[in-house]
Amino acid sequence: MAKTSSKTPHGTSSPDPMPDRVDPCLAMLVDKPPKGPDWAFEVKWDGYRLAVYVEPDRVRIITRGGHDWTPRLASIATEARQLGYETLILDGEAVVLDDQGRSDFGMLQRALGRKPSLHDPREILFFAFDLLYVDGWDLRRLPLRERRWLLEPIVAGREGAIRLSEEVEADGEEFYRIACAHGLEGIIAKHCEKPYRSGRSDCWQKITCRRRDSFVIVGYEPSAVPGAIGRLLLAARKGEGLVYVGGCGTGWSHQESIKLRELLDEIRDKPAVALSRKGAVFTRPVLVAEVEYRAWTDESKLRHPSFKGIRELEDHSGVYEIDPQMKS
Which are the catalytic amino acids? Predict the structure, then answer.
């Protein structure tokens, strides 16, 4: 027998059929947090978006793209059954936390991977941030404020595989500054008075923390467009030398790409880093790219880099230096 919550949705008169699948509400990327009393904020988790469907005879864990990951996330499925509700749909994010409590996408990928890993799938946690359906009530028509009011007694205070993604009532810009200073992925802003809307809208907004550093250009990969660049090949300092940190393929216009290729073609040279890549054109390491990026991968490569500008290499003082302990 399912638990009956003391909190009941407003304006409902008869049970609603449980949806077989709900397309997720997606946050719109914006430059800065919104202002006003109708906005609440959460940490932006660096993981996989999932929905947990609890039904009388089964539990399903479905990805944003519609794939069934229930067998891969058995500990989350088991705990979902133990929440005590006959039917339930939770919206949230699967993550693995590092030793500082931050979500780490690389650790999550290893825990989910088929290769031997130091990370166990049981380390994967599900942070629930929305409640879409519970015991006969479709809650999507309700404002977020009420959905959260119903969600919290179900998952708040749990320390197992399913946990509550805490809502922060704070100044958005200050919360964003603190989140970035602590190395988090960013923050999510949600309008408290809006219903749940599948697809992307400005009811939910994401503000990501971006890093900006300088990297030596060591070559490029040609574009399929004649005379243009597909990707810049970038390197960072490591000890007395340079180490390849990945390619950057966005951030320039078509005309800028052509001019950049003309510039690099004038300084073609042998590889300045240990890199073998078919079709790559290597250059003397005399130019520096200013690059904005999100984070580092487990292989010490830039994640989601975007080109912001170029300058000459006067000395190595302004070039990013890799920690000698990092893998290359």
Answer: 44
